[in-house]
Prior knowledge:
With 189 residues, this protein is α/β, with parallel strands linked by helices. It contains 6 helices and 6 strands; from the N terminus they run E-H-E-H-H-E-H-E-E-H-E-H.
Amino acid sequence: MNVILFHSTYGLRPAVHAAADRLRAAGHEVRVPDLFEGQTAESVEEGRELREAIGRDELLRRAVAAAAPHSDQGLVYAGFSLGGAVAQQLALADEKARGLLLLHGTSDVPDDASADDLPVQLHVADPDPFEPDDWLNAWYLRMGRAGADVEVHRYAGAGHLYTDPDLDDYDAEAAEATWRVALGFLDSL
């Protein structure tokens, strides 16, 4: 599978490269664009400042530019938190998208979104302060109305970015469970 994997608000850090290597070891071709152009953050607040300084439109422009040369191959869009939101926006706009793998994050679903039979898998902490229950319920319903085939996997007690071993949120058990299920999802596409 051809996967494009977008980083979180922390930027393109070692955990993203490790995740890409894990997917490559399972036989997938993976690209990891750097939407922050070399900048990384040490905290969520610092990441938000980076994101705001770059701007939403510019982040999406960079993401589209990274994906466009490969979209004719039928990409699986994937991302961590902010990167999940970016991946979702691109997947919903790409008629050739093969799948959407969301790790720790979602985005609003436009009323006119169309994702006929798009396989979508979301992995999220339970609870997650950035993805509260009311938001996730509404997101799930809107993705379903758009035609997506959605699976949601929740991990009790895990922190928001629980797959990143360099952060306090890290939960080894939840991370391993996530990768096991996510690899099965990619293999099924």
